[in-house]
Design brief:
By secondary structure, this protein is an alpha/beta fold. The chain is 32% helix and 26% strand. The chain is built from 7 helices and 6 strands; from the N terminus they run αβαββαβααβααβ. The two termini are 34 Å apart.
């Protein structure tokens, strides 16, 4: 709705869950809805933007999804992605306490098959033939006393920016020589 309210655009949705796809179709939230796995989606259209919003961590081979998206993008097309950061202080604190408790949603979501840091996200996009044009952080700062203690721990290289980052918002563009990256 936001996209359609700010510009004249056709929106397409590929949704794995048939019930969610049906609901989206009935509600008119997207102009075109296709139910199935994105890897099976084919179109003669070329898209200006393909979004993976909190999705790539839920699939076995996220690089395949990015590589497939690359084949569907227009010459100036981009990929947008939102990916949670497993390096967030809340996860680190749980690990220090000897815990890794799965929950219905969030970084510890029971349905996550992959976990990412900024470094592994960069590797993923590079391997799929993308240049990351923009990386924005969704910050949920940790308790100052914890961060201060980690910062002062001798011999520990603490990445405070990563500890405060709950998720990364990425804009990626296919590399000019991306054909060599076929997976």
């Amino acid at each position: 709705r936001l996209i359609k309210s700010t510009r004249e655009a056709q929106t397409h949705l590929v949704e794995l869950d048939p019930d969610v796809a049906s609901s989206a179709m009935r509600s008119g939230k997207a102009d075109h809805v296709w139910s199935g796995d994105f890897l099976d989606f084919q179109s003669s259209l070329k898209f200006d933007c393909i979004s993976f919003l909190d999705m790539l961590e839920h699939v076995e081979h996220p690089s395949l999804y990015l590589s497939h998206a690359r084949t569907l993008l227009s010459a100036s097309g981009v990929v947008l992605a939102s990916i949670p950061n497993v390096g967030h202080w809340s996860v680190v604190a749980d690990l220090i306490e000897g815990r890794w408790d799965y929950v219905p949603a969030g970084i510890h979501c029971v349905t996550h098959l992959r976990f990412f840091t900024e470094h592994t996200i960069r590797d993923l996009f590079d391997a799929a033939g993308f240049t990351m044009e923009s990386v924005k952080r969704v910050c949920v700062p940790g308790p100052a006393e914890w961060l201060d203690q980690w910062r002062q721990t001798r011999g520990l290289k603490t990445d405070l920016a990563s500890l405060d980052t709950y998720a990364f918002l990425i804009t990626g563009r296919p590399k000019a020589d991306s054909q060599q990256y076929e997976l």
